[in-house]
Hints:
- The structure is a single chain.
- The chain folds into two domains: about 1-50, no CATH class; about 50-85.
- Helix content is about 50%, strand content about 15%.
- The protein has helices spanning about 15-20, 20-30, 30-35, 50-70, 80-85; strands at about 5-10, 40-45.
- A two-stranded parallel sheet has the order 1-2.
- The longest helix is centred in the C-terminal third of the chain and has 19 residues, at about 50-70.
Amino acid sequence: KAFNINKIIYFSDGAASQYNNCKNFMNLCYHSMDFQTDAEWHFFAISHGKGPCNGLGGTIKQMAAQASLQCPFNEQIMTLRQLYDS
C-alpha cells in the first residue's frame, strides 16, 4: 500500500550543537524545494520527548545509511520515496 506523505514533522531534543549548526536551519528552509515535501521542526528541552521512537529513529537511520552505501553510486537513497521503496 502506498502512502502520500504531505509533511514531515521533526522533533529534536535540546542538544546544544543543533543551535550552533546553521545547516539545520538551511535544510529546513529548503526542505520543500529539495524533497517536494513540507516540514516543520519542534525543539524539546534536554531529556524531554525521549521514548521508544528515539531508538526506532536511530535504527532506521542506520539501516537506511547501510542500504544506501550498498547501492551503486547513482542509485543511492536520496529521497523519502527511495527510502520507502528500499
